[in-house]
Amino acid sequence: AVSAGKLALPEPEETGDSFAENARLKAVAAARASRLPALADDSGLEVRALGGEPGIHSARWGGAARDFGLAMDRVHRELEAASATDSTANFTCALALASPDGQTEVFEGKVFGTLTWPPRGTRGFGYDPIFVPEGYRQTFGEMEPTLKDSISHRARAFEKMMLAVYDHD
Prior knowledge:
Elements: H1 19-34, E1 38-47, H2 68-81, E2 88-98, E3 104-115, E4 131-133, H3 145-151, H4 153-168
Antiparallel strand pairs: 1-2, 2-3, 3-4
């Protein structure tokens, strides 16, 4: 496996209106430019009380520097401004697997939970310190990485992809 960065591939603009569309754009661009099969993902946090936001704009909520401390503060401020009592949220990951001819399959995984404030834990990245997955008391930011990785939205998307790949054999 070789990263798009190592191959110096240009990063396409994420103009899709869903995680799946943005993952597909990135995978197809990488596959065509490299002439190799490519795997790309797009993921983010969706907060029910905010109508699914930040969603596909999750990284942008942290400003130009993609500061997730700022992004988590914004989520908290917007929930307070909306007087929201619903703290349910989910992480979504879309994985797109593309061949150089543009044929693409997308696999989506979700993990559901609730938001907590203030942030807890220094592990993980992004919104992990404010997200408590269903059935757990720790935030993703507090969890052992192997546990988080086994129940995450990415794990669920990869499971679907592997099942599809093995079904084709």
